[in-house]
Design a protein that fits this description.
The chain is α/β, with parallel strands linked by helices and about 725 residues long. Helices cover about 40% and strands about 15% of the residues. It has five domains: about 180 residues, P-loop containing nucleotide triphosphate hydrolases (Rossmann fold), CATH 3.40.50.300; about 70 residues, Arc Repressor Mutant, subunit A, CATH 1.10.10; about 180 residues, P-loop containing nucleotide triphosphate hydrolases (Rossmann fold, 3-Layer(aba) Sandwich); about 150 residues, PCRA, domain 4 (Orthogonal Bundle); about 45 residues. Bound molecules: adenosine-5'-triphosphate (ATP). The chain binds a DNA duplex (15 and 10 nucleotides) through helix 4, helix 5, helix 8 and helix 17.
Length: about 725
DNA sequence: CCATCGACCCTTTTT
DNA sequence: GGGTCGATGG
């Protein structure tokens, strides 16, 4: 059967038709890679080459998976009971839960999130009495995650040539693994690593999966790590129907073990592979595309790609030099309002930044302006304390070995069972080789332990709930836990908005559970907890939500928006200072910028700040080197602003046209002014430009105090007395 | 045992 | 500026 009239160009169609044998689709941003992969999946079904469940497609995020699944269903009109389109993590988790017993894995294992692993590592450091400036828990975790991404077990761990520190980390790694085992838990990297081990140690399982998935496809291939590649390689090794899709210029996750080298490995392992290039960009204007291509050429190690578009030239890229982050946010929101007035709906806009910490100012401004927005990254709903507390109860019910969950549940709310008691239970569980919760059970019946009187009621209550899990809905169980534990009691009737929000969040959790039960085929507590563990907030992003989107550049991968703002283009922030030590790392930052630029369909706005508050202190940084790497002819500075808005155009920081090819111009601000410390709220002053005004707010800031001044006939302005000559009346 | 306060480290980026 | 952890006193 031939392809129906899929809306694809000839190269895309070629990739779709080439269903047999290894295939690499290698192409630049916005060239329809994901679209091609989706149609390829559909085509394999429609041409009856395989049953829908015999095709595996791996995506980068759950959201991408969900979208691809929906597209496939709408193209093929199949009734999809279970399509294997998911992230690596979700797929590996599924393998482990359903076939883990073949590799000696207890399928009820818990998944530890970042906070859990951090806390675990802290206790390990205490146990091993490690207190070093060079070896922090954070650092050890980082090393271990890296080792795991490369499939290195503790005994083989080495750290460069620094034997001493390497040996220490290897010991920590070993202890960490031991703890995970007693907890019957895995961290995120374990999901991949243990799935790989399962395949390698259980020939029957490997054979089964090789047969089960006759076609394998991977999106965002450039950001797969070593273990992920080994997994797909193993699955596809015999039938060799492996299609990978990627763009080396968009590799932005090497810091968490992603390995661009996988592109080369693919060619080595599958030398017969066909390579198809896609060269037409369907997403962006000519200007934006030119900007992106010009930038990325500054990277030394990359494969040159042709990328062209039939789209319009479009508007110039706009650069704004902001005084500080408040001014930057002010400018962004002003632009959003302008464009909104000319017909762009709120969800056309995305504001990107390098670090999550930068989001706050934008949020505040958006709230004040009454613009609806959605923010991703940083703090997740499921990271909130009240949510984690309640989920801990549910985890105890599933995995009695999960000491972390039990400890958390016991302490929320506090019920007279403290650290001493819990440590005794811990010791008992080790000496008697029992899961933590069972040790608690034994102790609560043993008269030798005085504290049993306090432990018993809690334990019995938990067991009672556990005995009900079979017959009750999950949401009912959760409600029972909330009610009978008295979790909300301290917050009820409180007028504190914080308490109010805790109650609301708990209610939201209950409805989330109920919602899950309604949607799922065969809901289970275990599956719900899995979904929560793997959920990221980008998964809840909605492109037609009628809201402005705020996110980091990393989260923006794979998305597209009509109007994009890339903010904080300062040396040390973007590229981040942690990357400056290493040319390769700066290249990755540049790719990140490339990814950001290429998310944009119609308009692109860039900005940087002269001054930015970090950790509450001011820092001055020159504009990002990346700005000098953009083509100067399409870049347009925003003309110097004339008063009119709430927060001021501090005249010394007027925007300038970008000057390329030279180092950033020196800071032109005058140091002549008063440093502001001797102005008081309520004082009247005269400003050289705005005239007579009264000081409303004095913000002491560390180095550069700010004054909020109300000027007659003009309104409120933010003034830096250090840079302007203010005269007292 | 637990609530509160202060010291300290922190910030890249996320499945 | 903020969140986490440990010391301290109730
Ligand atoms: N043949 C085509 N005809 C019309 N539109 C297309 C075609 N191919 C791709 N597009 C559109 O171009 C945009 C980019 O496609 P897609 O997201 O698949 O590209 P991509 O290569 O995966 O992008 P990136 O790697 O930058 O995330 C989408 O809006 C898609 O619908």
């Amino acid at each position: 059967m031939e392809t129906p009239d899929y809306p694809l160009n000839p190269q895309q169609l070629e990739a779709v038709k080439q269903t047999e044998g290894p295939l690499m689709i290698f192409a630049g941003a916005g060239s329809g890679k994901t679209r091609t992969l989706t149609y390829r999946f559909a085509h394999i079904i429609q041409s009856k080459r395989a049953h829908p469940t015999e095709i595996l497609a791996v995506t980068f995020t759950n959201k991408a998976a969900r979208e691809m699944r929906e597209r496939i269903v709408s193209i093929t009109r199949i009734r999809a009971r279970r399509l294997f389109v998911s992230t690596f993590h979700a797929f590996c988790l599924w393998m482990l839960r359903s076939y883990g017993d073949k590799g000696g894995i207890d399928p009820k294992f818990s998944i530890l999130d970042d906070g859990d692993t951090k806390r675990l590592m802290n206790t390990i450091f205490k146990e091993m009495s490690i207190n070093s400036r060079f070896l922090t828990p954070r650092r050890a975790l980082w090393e271990i995650q890296h080792a795991k991404a490369h499939g290195i077990p503790p005994e083989n761990y080495t750290y460069g040539s620094y034997d001493l520190i390497g040996k220490r980390i290897s010991e920590i790694y070993e202890a960490y693994e031991r703890h995970l085992k007693t907890l019957n838990a895995m961290d995120f990297s374990d999901l991949l690593l243990n799935a790989y081990r399962l395949l390698m140690h259980s020939p029957g399982t490997l054979a089964h999966f090789r047969q089960a998935f006759r076609y394998v496809m991977v999106d965002e291939y450039q950001d797969t790590n070593f273990i992920q590649y080994q997994i797909i390689k193993q699955l596809a090794w015999e039938h060799r129907n492996l299609c990978v899709v990627g763009d080396d210029d968009q590799s932005i996750y090497s810091w968490r073990g992603a390995n661009k080298e996988n592109i080369r490995l693919f060619h080595e392992d599958f030398p017969e592979a066909t390579v198809i290039k896609l060269e037409q960009n369907y997403r962006s204007t000519k200007t934006i595309l030119h900007c992106a291509s010009h930038l990325i050429r500054h990277n030394s190690t990359r494969t040159e790609k042709t990328l062209w578009t039939e789209n319009d030239t479009g508007d110039p890229v706009v650069l704004y030099e902001a005084g500080d982050e408040e001014d930057e946010a002010r400018w962004v929101i002003e632009k959003i309002q302008d464009l909104s007035a000319s017909g762009f709906p709120w969800h056309s806009f995305a504001v990107f930044y390098r670090t999550n910490a930068q989001s706050r100012v934008f949020e505040e401004r958006l709230i004040r302006s009454g613009i609806p927005y959605q923010i991703f990254g940083g703090f997740k709903f499921y990271d909130r304390k009240e949510i984690k507390d309640l989920l801990a109860y549910l985890k105890c019910l599933v995995n009695p070995g999960d000491e972390l969950a039990v400890r958390r549940a016991v302490a929320a709310p506090s019920r007279g069972i403290g650290k001493g008691t819990l440590d005794q239970i811990k010791t008992f569980s080790i000496t008697h080789n029992l899961p933590f919760l069972e040790a608690m059970g034994k102790i609560s019946e043993d008269p030798a332990f005085k504290m049993r009187k306090r432990v018993r009621p809690f334990y019995d209550w938990l067991m009672e709930i556990r005995s009900l899990t079979a017959e009750m809905e999950i949401s009912e169980i959760l409600e029972k836990i909330v009610k009978e534990s008295g979790y909300l009691t301290p917050y009820e009737g409180s007028s504190d908005p914080r308490a109010q929000s805790i109650i609301e969040n708990v209610q939201e959790l209950i409805s989330a559970v109920a919602n899950y039960e309604e949607e799922a085929d065969s809901p289970s507590l275990e599956e719900f907890l899995d979904l929560v563990s793997l959920m990221t907030d980008t998964d809840t992003l909605n492109e037609t939500s009628g809201k402005v989107t705020l996110m980091t550049l990393h989260s923006a991968k794979g998305l597209e928006f009509p109007v994009v703002f890339i903010t904080g283009l300062e040396e040390g922030l973007f590229p981040h200072e942690r990357s400056l030590v290493d040319e390769g790392k700066v290249d990755e930052e540049r790719r990140l910028f490339y990814v950001g630029i290429t998310r944009s369909q119609k308009r692109l706005f860039l900005s940087f700040c002269r001054e930015r508050y970090q950790y509450g202190r001011a820092s001055f940084r020159p504009r990002s080197r990346f700005l000098r790497e953009l083509p100067e002819d399409i870049l347009q500075g925003t003309p110097k602003r004339k008063s009119a808005s709430l927060h001021g155009s501090h005249s010394p920081f007027a925007s300038t046209k970008l000057s390329t090819g030279a180092t950033a111009p020196p800071n032109t601000r005058s140091e002549a002014g008063n440093n502001g410390n001797d102005f008081k709220v309520g004082e009247q002053v005269i400003h050289p430009v705005f005239g007579r005004g009264i000081i409303k707010v004095r913000e002491l800031g560390n180095t550069h105090p700010k004054l909020l001044i109300h000027f007659e006939g003009i309104g409120l302005k933010l003034i830096y007395p250090k840079f302007v000559e203010l005269t007292r009346i």
